[in-house]
Write a structure and sequence with these properties.
It is a single chain. The chain folds into 3 domains: about 180 residues, no CATH class; about 170 residues, Cytochrome Bc1 Complex, Chain D, domain 2 (Orthogonal Bundle); about 80 residues, Orthogonal Bundle (Cytochrome Bc1 Complex, Chain D, domain 2). Helix content is about 40%, strand content about 0%. It is built from 25 helices and 4 strands. The N and C termini lie far apart (about 55 Å).
Length: about 500
Amino acid sequence: MPYNKLAEELGCGNCHIGMTISDTMLIRAPDLSYAGEKYKAGYLYAYLKDPDIVRHNIGSSRMPNFLFSDNEALAVTKYLMSRKILPTEQKIKERAIGSSAGGFEVIHSEYQCTSCHLLNDVGKQLSTDFNKSGSRLNSNWMFDFIQIPEKYVPKGSPMPNFFDDDFGHGLDEYSEKTITTMVAYLYEISKTKREELDSTYLLREQMYPDVTVEMGQKIFQSQFCQACHTMNEEEVWFERNAPDLTQQKIRTQEKWLRNYLLFPEAIRPFGFIPGTGSRMPDYRLTETENNELISWFGFKKDETELEPITKFISLKTEQILENYLPCKGCHQIDGSGGKVGPDLTNVGNRLTNSFILNAVNNPHETMVGSVMPKTEMDPLLVPQIISYLSRKQSNVKRLYPNLITQQPYKVSNNYEGNCASCHGLNGDGKGFNAENMPTKPSDFTDAKEMANRADDTLYDTIHVGGRIMNKSHFMPGWGEKMSPKEIVDYVQIIRKFCNCEQPDWAKS
């Protein structure tokens, strides 16, 4: 898509297919590799729940709100507090907080930090607010930062180095006392807020004793935080984890998109790549910013005219979707069905007629990166299905699942991407979507059952879908998406899950 300054500063292309990655956001977002050395846990928790502006010098770039629940935010906080990989091999020294006497004069008058920072009611809001520093940052890290800022700030930053030219060596007694006074003063004026944040965080730890660092790590990875933040020595789950925006002009209806950008909701509850749990966060756009993005996307007049649909045909289509086609294996309609893909109850006020038509007929080309397979249908049924879907409208807000209750996972191969949502990562039939199915998905680890099924039977089921084998019709066929070799490979994966072979009669 063509360049847009706001989209670049928000980092839209860092997640969405079809856009250039934002170097701006990668520079502006703080390095989280040493978050545990830098931040106070109470502050991080509150910030994750409701991000606010920290640095007033980074244009329109901002931390979006991922709508974390209390236990999700606690988990991510625990994970971030465990990260202590400093940009140099030096260790941050433990120091007692000294006297704050004269601290304001040192900061404001002697070093004129208020030329860029707000302190009490004095100064300029050109960078971080010093009134919040003592509730936000660890005192030992603050000392280290003031002493040697170039360890932590990007090259070209206006933050001056007042005290040290040699990365921590040779700090004289006067400089050490001065920095100590600065830190002590900032801590003193933030005492009430710091205690309030620490108290809330302690309460959450008591409420959720089973929340772990590992849970927070998975949530951090699932939201692709590394798309903007540096996090050294951490695995990255995605290259991109959001829909292709190159077709946006003909994809969504303007009214829907305008509201969605202001108030995001769960279109794909378990992630754009099912199981990963990725979310569209809330960037808290202003009306002006929203208008700019809407104008940048642009909208092409939808000239696709669909066949009118009678009440009788509508009811007939509902029966076909309920009892014949696999659509509801992945999609909800009117409160029932799977949660792998978008809820189709509101698809008529979300997507254009032309996009619905293309998505049904050619899902692989229309929705780049989607796992949706193409379903072979009677050509006479297709116009009815599309007309029915185009008239589905609802204003019910969809919520994301809790990422503690439903832990996200990295999708590393095609089985995990296409099958694990129902059949489970380990093939045990306990995928996150299994509970939405009227028929329990097959348990591939059941060696006794699987040893009775021929490889040809497994192949045909994968190729055509469950209905052809008198299994659940909600199991779609993958023959239009996968090559014969890929399906054979899937059969072998199933054999590994059950650690069994096909029956002897099928081998000849």
